[in-house]
Please model this.
Amino acid sequence: MAYAEDARPTPFKRYCKALRLQADTELLAAYRHLHAPGNAWPEITQGMREVGILDMEIYLIDNQAFMLMDTVPEFDHDQAMQTLATKPRQAEWEALVAPFQQTTPDATAAEKWQLLERIYKLGA
Model:
C-alpha cells in the first residue's frame, strides 16, 4: 500500500520506533479505533506539537506497531519525551492505551516505544 506525502520545505529529524501490542483481535481493533483520524485527543496532539514533533505516523503488522516521528532539527528526544509526559492528559492517555501494549503498567511512553536503528538508506 502506498501513501501520498507532502513535501517538507525545511530540514527535519526522523525517529523510527517499535512497540509490541497484545495479540488479541478485539484489542487490536480498539487500538486502531483510538488512533483513527479525529480520535486522538486534541491535548495529546497539541502536546506533541509543543515539544517539536512535526508529524507522526503509526503502522501495524499483526501485533507489531511501528512509528515514524518527524521533528524539528534541534529536537532532543530524551528531553522532549520527559516534557511530553508532563503535558495535559498525557498520563491519562498512556493509562488508556497501556492495556493494549505488551509493557508494564508503569512504563513511560519512552520505555514502551523502542527506538529503531537505521541500517540502510537509499541515496545519501
